[in-house]
Amino acid sequence: MNTEIDTGEPAGTPTEDVPEEAQPASKKAKPGRKKRIFAAVTVLALLVGAAAVGTTLTDPKSSEAYVALAGEKASVESERDSAKSSYESMKSKYDTLQNGITDREAKVTARETEVGKAEASVKTAEAEVKKREEAVTGAEKTKAANTIGDGTWTVGTDIEAGTYRATADVDSSCYWGIYATGSNGSNIIENDLPGGGRPTVALSGGQDFKSTQCGTWEKQ
User: Fold this and answer.
1) Could you state, in order of their start, the residue ranges of all structural domains in the chain?
2) 1, 64, 101, 103, 147 from 220: Cα distances, Å
3) What is the pLDDT of residue 4?
4) Closest CA to 154 of 211, 213, 209
5) 185-201 burial, b if ≥16 CB within 10 A, otherwise e?
6) First-to-final CA distance of the chain
7) Alpha carbon of residue 145 to chain centroid
8) Using CA of residue 208, residue 213, residue 216, residue 220, what is the dihedral sign?
């Protein structure tokens, strides 16, 4: 029995024993196809190798060095966060203190301004008081110069000429006299024993005035 296998080739056309160079162009292997096959095989080999390596290498995160570094990193980050928190807290306190200092400086400046105004007012008041004191002192000096008591006074030398009056009522022991200057009381121009009231005398230059137990006399 003769059985033939259909190879898709025309009957009577041998291909196995014919050299490649002698085969038809349609039967020759194309260079591009060979390259694609080679690349596919290479990639497959690499994938297989990578899978093999992956199954043999350990996870780096499980190593002691990695765990230690991770712990150090966590510790550093914790210290950093703590330092940052402390800094923010200190900065907040500093800002509060700074604001307080600014407020106090403003208050001190305001008080200094008020003190300056008060000092200026005090100086003005002192100047007014001094002026008044000087006026009073001058008036007192003038009054003192124009006031005489018991004794003998030369008009024009010891006292000024003018009209003088007793500052209080006199009694019967009062005596006053006006004499010519240099007469030693011998040349009487006028005298009196008023015995009461507030007597008045008119004195001129070239006269001496004597007062006995009449109190004080003030120029009018």
Assistant:
1) 149-219
2) 188, 122, 68, 66, 10
3) 45
4) 209
5) eeeeeeeeebeeeebeb
6) 188
7) 60
8) negative
Are the CB atoms for 199 and 192 separated by under 8 Å?
yes
pLDDT digits (tens, 9 = 90+) for 86-138: 999 999 999 999 999 998 899 999 999 999 898 998 998 899 888 888 777 77
Work out the pLDDT band at 36, boundaries 50, 70, 90. low
Q: Is the CB of residue 189 less than 8 Å from the CB of residue 180?
A: yes
**CA dist 72 to 58, 59, 64, Å?**
22, 19, 12
CA distance 160 to 163: 9
Distances (CA, A) of 176 to 53, 75, 212, 216, 218: 149, 116, 6, 12, 14
Task: Look up the pTM and report it.
Answer: 0.41
User: What sign does the CA torsion over 128, 131, 135, 138 have?
Assistant: positive
CA 218 to chain centre: 64
The tokens of 24 are what? 């038809």
- pLDDT confidence of residue 128: 87
